[in-house]
Design a protein that fits this description.
single chain; mainly alpha; 434 Repressor (Amino-terminal Domain); 2 domains; 7 helices
Length: about 120
């Protein structure tokens, strides 16, 4: 299973146009860790696997097992009922929900735009 996961991680990373170093930066891990995942020497732990799926915008089941769709239909990551997001303003939830529906390149463009305003 790890042998195939390494290919899925590499494929999803490359489709985002990211280097191993960029993925590592976004994951807050080292580049050698990403290289180990992609070579099959080590598998990411569950926490990192969940984070990888979200960052790479792929289905968790596809990434971890190869089953299911690589890119499942968009879902809202921020629910009004989710206790972890109770502290957010309605505008912040709206922004995150909209961001979750964007394509990867659109997300990057939006982030660059927002950072230019700050």
């Amino acid at each position: 299973m790890i042998a195939m996961m390494k290919e899925r991680i590499k494929r999803a990373r490359r489709e985002r146009g990211w280097s191993q170093a960029e993925l590592a930066r976004r994951m807050s891990v080292t580049q050698p860790s990403v290289a180990e995942w992609e070579s099959g020497r080590k598998a990411p732990n569950m926490k990192n696997l969940v984070r990888l799926a979200k960052l790479l915008d792929v289905g968790f089941e596809w990434l971890s097992t190869g089953r299911g769709e690589m890119r499942p239909p968009p879902t809202l990551y921020v629910s009004e009922a989710a206790p972890a997001y109770e502290w957010m303003l309605p505008e912040e939830r709206r922004l995150l929900n909209t961001f979750a529906r964007l394509q990867p390149r659109q997300r990057e463009a939006l982030l660059e735009f927002l950072e230019s305003l700050a």
